[in-house]
Structure formats: C-alpha cells, structure tokens
C-alpha cells in the first residue's frame, strides 16, 4: 500500500518554488564588482542599478555584510562614490530586478482574479526615514509604490509589503519585462512631488517616490540588500534558500561568461563555437574578453540564444598554432 | 537604458555576407549586438536611432 503524508496547510504552502525573484540571497555574482557606474548590472546577478540626471556614481559589489542568523552569506552593496547632495527635479536612482513575463502568468493580472503578491527583503540603509519600494507593470507602465521606514541607519532591518494584483492589464506571456521591483534610492520632485497612495496602481510620475530620502547624498553611504523574496499571496513565508547551482543556472538565462577553448591558428581564419550552458532569454549581446595575456578580436558570425549554436571567427594577438582559451560575455538581461 | 552611451555603431556581416548584427561601443565597451528587438542593447540602439541621436554605419 502506498503511503503518503499530507502536510498541514501551514506547512504545505511552503513547498515548491515560491520565490519569483532570482538570486534573492545574492549568492551569484558572475560579473564581479563594477565600479564607477551610473547605469549598470554589477555585483550580485540580476540586480541593475539605474539612474537618470543625477550626478552620483556608484560601485556595485557582492558583499558579506548580512543580517545575523538569517542564513544569508551575501548582500548586494551599492557604494556611493560620487555624491549628489542637491537633487534636481528629474534626478533619480534605483536598484531593481526585472522579472520575465513568462514567469508571472499565474498572477492572473488582467483579470478579476489578479493575485496579491508579498515582497520581503532585508535592507541596511545609511539613511533613516521614508524609503520607497514599488512594483512596475512592464506591459501597462503602471506603478504600485509602498513606503517603508528605516528606523536606525546602517542597521539591518526586515521589510515586508503586500501588493494588490492589477486587474486592468495582463502581463504578456513573453520574454519581456513582466514586473520590475524598484528600490528607490533618490528621487527628485518629478517623481516625489505628488501624493503617495500606498498600494495603489497608477501612472502618475509625481506619486511614485514621495518622501524618499536621498541615499546618494554622501560618499560615506552604502546601501545593502539581501533576502529578497516575492511570492503569491498575502503572507511572507520563510525565505526559500536555493542551492548555488540552482541560482547560477537561473542567472545564466540572462548572463553567462563562456570559457571558450580550441586548438588552432589565432591570427586570421580562426573559427569555433561558443559553448553556452543555458539557453538565453533572447539573443544575447556578445563581448570579447581578454584571457591568457592575449587580446581576442572576434567577430560574432552567428549569435544565437541556443546553447552550442553560436559561432565566432576572427583574430587574436597570439600568432601560431596553440591552444586558445578566452572568455566571452553573453548578455540577455531584460 | 536611457543612461547608456552608444557610439561607433556599424552593421557587420556573417560568413555569407548577410547582415548579422551591430558592432557598437556601449558605455566604453565594444559589443556585438544581435538584430533581436528583445535584446536590450538592440532595443536601445533602435530607440536612439529613432530619436536621431545615433546613426548605424553600413557594413564594411
């Protein structure tokens, strides 16, 4: 006789893949640290720093500063290296993660059954006071901001917020942006000059980040984030700790560094295939790496989103017959 | 990606002489961008071309 065990409801809801966010524990950092940027991925995979108009510059890195006894080993660190103490109207800075529409169809957006989602994260901000986190509907271009208050500067704090579902417009079932999670870091009056209506979907720019403190106002400022989980429902369940390998594969759908090796003549006429490990979200942008002391100048003859269906030809600074080994970066981020 | 700087954009061809992508310098790094509208770099190239701030040169 087959035996089965039915979990109590309180335990059953924790089963399976609940977290819609990739790399919520900031385990994977394929790019390494990225310095001196205003608009870039860097540090933990899948988190993009964006800014507009603002003169601040940051370094993005994976850090080991984490909340105690939560099971996290890493955080994403945004280090302000050039400050902006006086925000102009159109200034903004955000750290965000994009979630693909293909992975969000069960939210039933665009129907009367649109589901609520709950976001939890740990944050360590250099500023006390109001901060804004929002969902951005990629296909409707509507925002749903919510505020959270940092009570003590430079201290880890857990935040949990629940967002209503969006009934008017569906999330397209495609490889485009379904939702962004935006953590605001600074907002000029264009984005903060209105009225904050918590947990309300709207497209009024001035109501997006009302009250947001300026995290970018000093080069002493470091903003940390980890333990990010977005899940269906109104309850924040325990963080879903995934294996490093699992998270790496998820991240490689969007970004991968390929280690290419072949024997041959490096100058003129060289050709090889690129061994992608994971099929990409879209056809990726390819960037030459430098490896082994040689500079490779490849032309990407055939770029494909599919593993092992991408070839290059070109030259390297190394003449003669040898084993060539180099890195190629493939970027299919949203 | 409206904070991205793109220069030196030029189409390039594959072995068969067909247009394969755009080689461009994006924020200081030379990148090979496929002609896929779902690719964020190509989408930004198209946006800047439409805005009249970027021109893609023909392939050599």
Please, could you describe this protein's structure?
Chain A has helices at residues 9-12, 189-192, 244-252, and strands at residues 34-37, 40-41, 48-52, 57-63, 75-82, 92-100, 117-124, 129-137, 142-150, 157-163, 177-187, 222-232, 255-265, 270-273, 285-288, 290-291, 294-302, 311-316, 321-331. Chain A is mainly beta and 334 residues long. A 6-stranded antiparallel β-sheet of chain A has the order 1-4-5-12-7-10, with no helix packed on it. Chain A has a 6-stranded antiparallel β-sheet with strand order 2-3-6-11-8-9. In chain A, strands 14-18-17-16 form a 4-stranded antiparallel β-sheet, with no helix packed on it. Chain A is globular. The mean pLDDT of chain A is 89. Chain B has one helix at residues 40-50; strands at residues 6-13, 19-26, 29-34. Chain B has a 3-stranded antiparallel β-sheet, covered by helices on one side. With 60 residues, chain B is α+β, with helices and mostly antiparallel strands. Helix content of chain B is 18%, strand content 37%. The model of chain B has no long low-confidence stretch (mean pLDDT 91). The A-B interface holds A 37-40, 50-52, 175-176, 281-288, 299-303, 305, 313, 331-334 and B 1-4, 12, 14-15, 20-21, 23, 26-27, 29-34, 36, 38-42.
